């Protein structure tokens, strides 16, 4: 298999997978539990999920390591198991997909606010991510996906830690934007333009957006990314905002609806397309169809 | 008073050291602590809240302003013991059981404190009983609950039920907020109000408690 960045540079469009949390909740994860605990207790569930996404046509499958920073794991008293938790997730995914798809190690926010807004020193945040990433790089991964970031400084620290520990591993950095009267901004006030500039300078190979409130806003966010970066763009949208029916979240955007908006995303230059909260293997299969149709055309 | 405007302005800039220093100077000038609080710190926080609401400034600015506000309040607190704390009312607040997100809840606590309310912050992952226990213990007028996860929202309904069982429902008002919530959901579970953001939380709490 060609390296991931090489395929992107040849103009190929890659499909990444859908939600992890949504799949875990369907498989018995209780609200309030640590989503990464399953890595140690029932890794076969992760193998099953990875197989479903690869089977749906995902070129890139991500690992259940979103909350794998020891700072985050400490909220559940699991920081002592940082290494085991991260390694187990990668091995479980690898078992499902062999070498048919790429494995991207997911890295999400550490759950603490950096100084001066919060009480966490940059060295603490960076040190936590380094520990997580050292565990990740002890296994074979094809990329690191830094995701759902809202604080540019935390995102930069994470990208730099990854690039420092493994310069040749591609790093994707994506942030979550809200629509405001002043344009698309993260909750911490980061614009798309600032994200493009500063994440690029930090060494990210791929930049973009994930999560959010639906694929229609993502088409606007993607267009803005295209204006401000020459790096490949990644977009992983939520299946809309959830409505609560009988105490359970129901995401409004169907596989068909998301697929219908794919062309617009791809037209604006998106090179990696997948899903976030609420998306399932069915969503990915629909997206796969659109991408394959364009590739053949 | 010029110094009160300076306190307000420094608070809006998030200048913690300046707010602490100016508050100390205002005390030396024999201004009443309540006046320094209302027309300096709270006035400044009010501007911050409005600017945040209109997207002129962002979460980091609010967090810095709040730090500055607390620095000023720390100067005033020792002077206010003995006399009863000037408060608009008491609000017990927390993020519901199972939910570890607390930025939104912290923001509401900041805004309420900034508006002069006494806020008892129970933190995150708060079990239903604690909301009601603490509300009773502190004779709170309002219970505020936050949830950032769709899966933890149903806990809010448990708190409402518990408030009914204990006979405080109606007397103690219940407000809810958080990204996945809506006014419809608040109504469905029997909460008194849904708050979209920190500023609207202050407005709803004022409405519900009759505070001016």
Walk me through the structure.
The complex is a heterodimer of chains A (297) and B (212). With 297 residues, chain A is α/β, with parallel strands linked by helices. Chain A has one domain (4-296): TIM Barrel (Alpha-Beta Barrel). Chain A is 45% helix and 18% strand. Chain A has helices spanning 4-9, 21-26, 38-41, 43-55, 70-73, 82-97, 122-137, 152-165, 192-202, 215-228, 255-267, 281-296, and strands at residues 14-15, 60-62, 102-107, 143-149, 171-175, 178-180, 183-185, 206-211, 233-237, 242-245, 248-251, 270-275. In chain A, strands 1-12-9-8-5-4-3-2 form an eight-stranded parallel sheet. In chain A, strands 6-7 form a two-stranded antiparallel ribbon. In chain A, strand 10 and strand 11 form a beta hairpin. In chain A, helix 10 packs parallel to helix 11. The two termini of chain B are 22 Å apart. Chains A and B meet through loops of A and helix 4 of B.
What does this entry show, briefly?
The complex is a heterodimer of chains A (297) and B (212). Chain A is of the alpha/beta class and 297 residues long. Chain A has helices spanning 4-9, 21-26, 38-41, 43-55, 70-73, 82-97, 122-137, 152-165, 192-202, 215-228, 255-267, 281-296, and strands spanning 14-15, 60-62, 102-107, 143-149, 171-175, 178-180, 183-185, 206-211, 233-237, 242-245, 248-251, 270-275.
């Amino acid at each position: 298999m060609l390296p991931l960045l090489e395929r992107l540079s040849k103009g190929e469009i890659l499909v990444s997978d859908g939600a992890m949390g949504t799949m875990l909740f369907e498989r018995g994860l209780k609200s309030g539990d640590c989503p990464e605990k399953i890595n140690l207790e029932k890794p076969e569930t992760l193998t099953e999920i990875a197989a479903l996404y690869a089977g749906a046509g995902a070129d890139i499958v991500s690992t259940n390591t979103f909350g794998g920073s020891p700072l985050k794991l400490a909220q559940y008293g699991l920081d002592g198991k940082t290494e085991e938790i991260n390694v187990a997730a990668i091995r479980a995914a690898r078992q499902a997909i062999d070498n048919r798809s790429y494995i991207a190690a997911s890295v999400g926010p550490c759950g603490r606010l950096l100084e001066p807004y919060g009480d966490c020193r940059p060295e603490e945040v960076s040190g936590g991510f380094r520990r997580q990433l050292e565990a990740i790089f002890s296994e074979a991964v094809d990329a690191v996906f830094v995701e759902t970031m809202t604080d540019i400084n935390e995102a930069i620290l994470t990208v730099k830690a990854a690039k420092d520990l493994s310069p040749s591993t591609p790093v994707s950095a994506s942030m979550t934007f809200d629509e405001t009267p002043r344009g698309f901004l993260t909750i911490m006030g980061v614009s798309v333009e600032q994200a493009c500039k500063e994440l690029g300078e930090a060494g990210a190979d791929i930049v973009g957006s994930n999560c959010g409130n639906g694929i229609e806003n993502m088409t606007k966010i993607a267009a803005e990314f295209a204006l401000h970066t020459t790096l490949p763009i990644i977009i992983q949208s939520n299946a809309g905002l959830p409505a609560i029916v009988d105490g359970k979240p129901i995401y409004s955007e169907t596989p068909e609806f998301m697929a219908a908006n794919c062309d617009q995303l791809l037209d604006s230059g998106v090179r990696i397309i997948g899903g976030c909260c609420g998306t399932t293997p069915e969503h990915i299969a629909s997206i796969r169809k659109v991408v394959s149709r364009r590739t053949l055309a | 008073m010029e110094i009160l405007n300076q306190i307000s302005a420094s608070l809006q800039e998030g200048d913690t050291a300046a707010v602490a220093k100016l508050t100390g100077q205002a005390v030396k000038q024999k201004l009443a602590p309540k006046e320094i609080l209302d027309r300096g710190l709270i006035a400044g926080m009010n501007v911050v809240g409005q600017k945040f609401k209109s997207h002129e400034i962002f979460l980091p600015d609010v967090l810095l302003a709040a730090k500055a506000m607390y620095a000023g309040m720390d100067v005033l607190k020792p002077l206010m013991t003995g006399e009863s704390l000037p408060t608009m009312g008491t609000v017990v607040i927390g993020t519901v059981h199972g939910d570890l997100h607390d930025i939104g809840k912290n923001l509401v606590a900041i805004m309420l404190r900034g508006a002069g309310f006494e806020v008892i912050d129970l933190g995150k992952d708060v079990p239903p009983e604690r909301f009601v226990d603490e509300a009773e213990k502190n004779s709170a007028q309002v219970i505020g609950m936050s949830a950032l996860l769709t899966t933890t929202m149903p806990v809010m309904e448990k708190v409402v039920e518990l408030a009914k069982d204990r006979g405080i429902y109606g007397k103690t008002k219940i407000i809810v907020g958080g990204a996945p919530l809506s006014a419809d959901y608040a109504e469905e579970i029997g909460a008194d109000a849904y708050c979209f953001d920190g500023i609207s939380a202050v407005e709803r709490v004022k409405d519900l408690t009759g505070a001016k």
